[in-house]
Design a protein that fits this description.
five-stranded parallel beta sheet, single chain, 13 helices, Rossmann fold, binds ligand PMT, 30% helix, elongated, 2 domains
Length: 404
């Protein structure tokens, strides 16, 4: 998504500038080319050498520097850029940008930018609340190519707590990804199930599986980056998707709760992707109290006393939605197999009336539960088959959405 993109990072003179080198590293690690422009004051907070080393390019901070390639960097940078990120943007620089004032390298570069510009303000909370600053932010945000990120609330470098913190580099990076992603799913509503379910036995035990939720979360993030309205029905996992506009999470615990949420939300969805590892069985009843070992149990486990747990089958969410599917809805399932992979996956595709099934096998190293990678084969109802090598779950998510 950022591979090969040209990004100009603008830095103005605020203490949050110490975080911007991290953002530059992230952008470059994602394959982007980065060039930096600064106000003269920014270099009090972060050095030219740091920025030059991390970006791999000369820093443009002095309009009249004899080292400039030519005297019009403020024009050549906008011609080169796919995106400009200004982080941190101080109150002073925001005022200049909102009013067309260009008196240094950063502001002259900004004034010539026609590509998307992402602005991440940072300042003291009183400055941030000032009507003049808020007016300038509104003006800046009204420019069609400019997106202003709101400040975070929290501890500020001046020793107070309030709203004025620059968003963290990870969040700015995510917004940059969003701005550079083609909005191929704009206006589409996507429902995704992810993670495991837990079926309670008693207050201290449950039946579950090893799903971490990573694959489903990657799908939800990618769909949201492409502009979809995403609802993620997420089973019990410590992982959460990154904060993206139009991505909401519905937390559930049991298969029955996932079933209820999916059946309720499916009629409003254009696309549903069922990635969750749903427990196929639940205990007949949940005990109110912790189930104790039997009184005559053998402490060494020899001739162990028997305990029987009666299980009921959970409803099949995919099959239920498959039976209700309208012709304008697309239903995607996953198949997690250990043997006869293709045969089983194709049987599930047909039995559950899916439009696509994504097969992953526990026999492949780096696939399925818990890991950051997956190895999948995509089967479509019309007979198409796409076999993919091992790749990150976010790349698998891209392939799945590309095949919709
Ligand atoms: O979460 P991760 O750690 O990243 O791992 C990802 C994953 C391995 C969980 C994921 O890639 C995956 O394979 N998910 C489906 C796991 C599974 O339950 O497969 P299955 O073959 O048993 O089920 C087939 C399909 O029916 C799936 O779409 C499943 O969501 C659905 N199903 C299954 C049972 C049930 N009661 N209701 C369902 O909807």
């Amino acid at each position: 998504m950022l591979q090969g993109k040209h990004i100009v990072v603008g830095i103005s003179g605020g203490i949050a500038a110490y975080k911007t080198p991290l953002l530059i590293r992230m952008l470059r690690a994602a394959g982007a080319e980065v060039k930096v422009t600064t106000t003269p004051n920014a270099l009090h907070f972060v050095t030219d050498l740091t920025l030059q080393t991390l970006s791999g390019n000369k820093v443009y901070s002095d309009v009249f520097a004899p080292t400039n390639d030519h005297s019009t960097e403020h024009i050549s940078l906008p011609d080169w850029a796919d995106l400009m990120i200004i982080a941190p943007a101080t109150a002073n620089v925001i005022g200049k940008m909102a009013n067309g004032i260009a008196d240094d390298a950063l502001t002259t570069t900004f004034l010539a930018m026609t590509c998307p510009v992402l602005v991440a303000p940072a300042m003291n909370e009183k400055m941030y609340a000032h009507p003049a600053l808020q007016h300038n932010l509104q003006t800046l945000d009204s420019f069609p190519h400019v997106t202003v990120l709101p400040c975070d609330e929290g501890f500020l470098a001046c020793g107070t707590t309030g709203k004025g913190r620059m968003q963290e580099p990870e969040q700015i990076f995510l917004s940059a990804q969003h701005l550079l992603t083609e909005q191929t799913l704009a206006g589409r509503r996507v429902l995704i199930t992810a993670g495991p379910t837990q079926e309670k036995i008693d207050p201290v035990r449950f039946i579950s599986n090893y799903s971490s939720g990573k694959m489903g979360i990657a799908l939800a993030e990618e769909a949201a980056l492409r502009g979809a309205e995403v609802t993620l029905i997420l089973g019990p996992t410590t992982l959460r998707p990154r904060a993206l506009p139009r991505l909401r999470v519905v937390n559930i615990v049991s298969a029955m709760q996932m079933y209820d949420a999916a059946v309720q939300l499916f009629p409003d969805a254009d696309i549903a992707i069922l990635c969750a590892a749903v427990a196929d069985y639940r205990p007949e009843k949940t005990a109110d109290h912790k189930i104790k070992r039997s009184a005559n149990s053998n402490p060494e486990g020899k001739e162990a006393a028997e305990y029987q747990l009666k299980l009921f089958e959970n409803p099949d969410i995919a099959a239920t939605l498959g039976a209700k599917k309208r012709p304008n809805q697309t239903l995607v399932g996953f198949a997690l197999e250990t043997d006869h992979e293709e045969e089983n996956a194709l049987a599930k595709l047909r039995a559950k009336h899916l439009d696509m099934i994504v097969l992953n096998s526990l026999r492949n190293e780096g696939a399925a539960f818990g890991v950051d990678t997956n190895v999948v084969t995509i089967y479509q109802a019309d007979g198409r088959k796409t076999e993919l090598p091992k790749m990150s779950k976010s790349d698998v998510a891209k392939h799945i959405l590309n095949n919709l």
